[in-house]
């Protein structure tokens, strides 16, 4: 079986000498809190598993988890009586998730928690 890697920045396949092929049992994509927790859980489940984390930034320094102020901004943005308030205030929560998270998340996924806020609160 021949492995190929894809360079997202140039949208071209790199030269063979530029490729580094890594073998693992579990590949975790992303370096945010959920991804790192998944990697830890995999090792807790079976310490012999070879777990590889693929991330575009430094662990703990990039991504939504590291750049968001979720403990403060998320709760406040979901309340109808806080600015800007009203039934459409969930959009501000989604915007906060996306913008403060460095615009690295999927905006459609960011809308979900905002739209379901009343049921969850």
Automatic annotation (TrEMBL):
The keyword Flavoprotein applies. Pfam families: FAD_binding_2. GO terms for molecular function: oxidoreductase activity. Residues 25-103 form the FAD-dependent oxidoreductase 2 FAD-binding domain. The lineage of its organism: Bacteria, Bacillati, Bacillota, Clostridia, Thermosediminibacterales. The keyword Oxidoreductase applies. InterPro entries: FAD-dep_OxRdtase_2_FAD-bd, FAD/NAD-bd_sf. This is FAD-binding protein. Keywords: Flavoprotein, Oxidoreductase. It comes from the Bacteria.
């Amino acid at each position: 079986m021949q492995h190929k890697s894809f360079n997202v920045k140039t949208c071209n396949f790199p030269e063979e000498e530029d490729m580094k092929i890594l073998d693992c049992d579990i590949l975790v994509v992303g370096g945010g809190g959920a991804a790192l927790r998944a990697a830890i859980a995999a090792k807790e489940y079976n310490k012999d598993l070879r777990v590889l984390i693929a991330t575009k930034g430094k662990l703990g320094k990039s991504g939504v988890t590291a750049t968001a102020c979720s403990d403060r901004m998320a709760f406040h943005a979901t309340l109808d009586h806080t600015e800007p308030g009203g039934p459409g205030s969930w959009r501000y929560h989604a915007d906060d998730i996306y913008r403060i998270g460095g615009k690295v998340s999927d905006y459609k996924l960011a809308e979900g928690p905002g739209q379901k806020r009343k049921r969850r609160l």
